[in-house]
Specification:
Blueprint: E1 12-15, E2 18-27, E3 30-41, H1 45-60, H2 76-89, H3 95-108, H4 118-127, H5 134-153, E4 156-157, E5 160-161, H6 185-194, H7 197-209, H8 213-217, E6 224-225, E7 235-238, E8 257-260, H9 263-274, H10 296-304, H11 313-324, H12 329-336, H13 343-346, H14 349-359
Antiparallel strand pairs: 1-2, 2-3, 4-5, 6-7, 7-8
Helix pairs in contact: 2-3, 2-5, 3-5, 6-10, 7-9, 7-11
Length: about 375
């Protein structure tokens, strides 16, 4: 039997773990329709109710808009600061977005929001050529676009949006010509021999699991999961905010994923655990989060090993080795964390057991075991 929701819940629906406003009614002869996210998670019902009531008052005119002395138009820097604060309030890590915003702040920070468009950002894009990779610049441009959309859709002075025009589309740079570059086993040996000690573990773990750089550098000990039928240190949880696939999805649609570590990956973890001095599995030399493995130490080691590669090429290497080992495509996609129809069943206990069994098939024809910085290499 259908029950009407409690009066205080009316107009709110839970989608995933987020409260959404869902109101459609007639007030004084006018049709009022409000369908939008409150941004409040399931445990914050009081906050969702307050936002619902405020939006309903705004829509029906029961609450007068405050008179706001702006002291001038809102700038890109103003909106960027609000966007970073919003990320923190929603429980997301704002560090990557903050890095991107810092890159464009000198060029865009003082501009009114409606002055930020392709012509104003293009000189900055052109100036980055030969200094930064097109991927780095493109990520900063995408973040700038996100800030503009946030200013238009969320930020308000009374009833007036901070950006009252349709956010312009910003074109990404296209000067990047670098192709995927998997490495051979012999090149892997040269790279491991050249790496500084604190990067050996992250690099071997990337080659063993196919994990992305951000998934490795943000890996914490409390994300290990014990699963019946799996060896210790085999299963690791990657939360939604770390996954690249979740970055453009609504909070209610975001999903985490499991990392499955084969023998080499577990050996790397066991070695790191013996000298655990941090919450991070792969800390920086100073003990904090590493955040980035594609750093000066990485580039220096690549130069000594005569390799022109990115850290992401280790992920391509894993994918090619998995295919060479005859691992089915749907399994490879699950191991890499790609979204596909069957990924959920692979994350059940039997599914994880199968993933581990498949990934253990990857191995070099004649394994090389060598002492490297007091550790090992495969």
């Amino acid at each position: 039997m259908h029950h009407n929701p409690e009066p205080k819940h009316r107009g709110l629906k839970l989608r995933g773990s987020i409260w959404w406003i869902d109101i459609c009614r007639r007030v004084d002869g006018r049709q009022i329709s409000i369908r939008e996210s409150t941004g409040c998670r399931e445990g914050d019902l009081a906050g969702a109710i307050a936002i619902r009531d405020r939006r309903l008052d705004d829509a029906t005119g029961r609450r007068a808009a405050p008179v706001v002395d702006l002291g001038g138009p809102r700038t890109f820097a103003d909106a960027a600061a609000e966007y970073l604060l919003d990320l923190e309030q929603r429980g997301k890590d704002p560090s990557r977005a903050e890095q991107d915003i810092r890159l464009v702040l000198d060029a865009l920070g003082d501009l009114p929001l409606d002055h930020v468009h392709q012509r104003t950002i293009q000189p900055w894009i052109d100036a980055q050529r030969g200094i930064r990779a097109s991927g780095t610049v493109g990520r900063a441009v995408r973040t700038a676009s996100t800030v503009l959309r946030f200013a238009a859709a969320v930020l308000r002075d009374g009833h007036v949006p901070w950006l009252a025009v349709t956010p312009p589309k910003l074109r990404l740079p296209d000067w990047g010509t670098r192709q995927r570059r998997p490495i051979t086993w012999e090149e892997q040996d040269r790279l491991i021999d050249a790496l500084p000690e604190h990067l050996i573990g992250p690099v071997l773990f990337a080659l063993a699991t196919g994990a992305r750089q951000a998934e490795i550098t943000t890996l914490r000990w409390d994300r290990h999961r014990d699963v019946d039928g799996l060896a210790p240190w085999s299963a690791w949880w990657v939360p939604p905010e770390i996954r690249k696939a979740s970055s453009r999805l609504a909070p209610s649609e975001q999903q985490g994923r499991y990392l499955v570590a084969p023998r080499l990956g577990r050996a790397v973890i066991e070695r790191a655990h013996t000298k655990q001095e941090s919450d991070w599995v792969f800390p920086s030399p100073r003990g904090g989060a590493l955040y980035r493995a594609n750093n000066h130490g990485w580039r220096t080691a690549c130069g000594e090993a005569e390799l022109d590669i990115r850290f992401h090429d280790l992920r391509h290497t894993f994918g090619d080795r998995a295919a060479d080992a005859g691992i089915p495509l749907d399994i490879v996609r699950s191991l890499l964390g790609h979204r596909h129809r069957g990924i959920t069943e692979h994350y059940s206990r039997p599914g994880l057991v199968r993933l581990l069994g498949e990934v253990e098939r990857i191995g070099r024809p004649a394994p090389r075991l060598a002492a490297v910085g007091g550790g090992f290499a495969q």
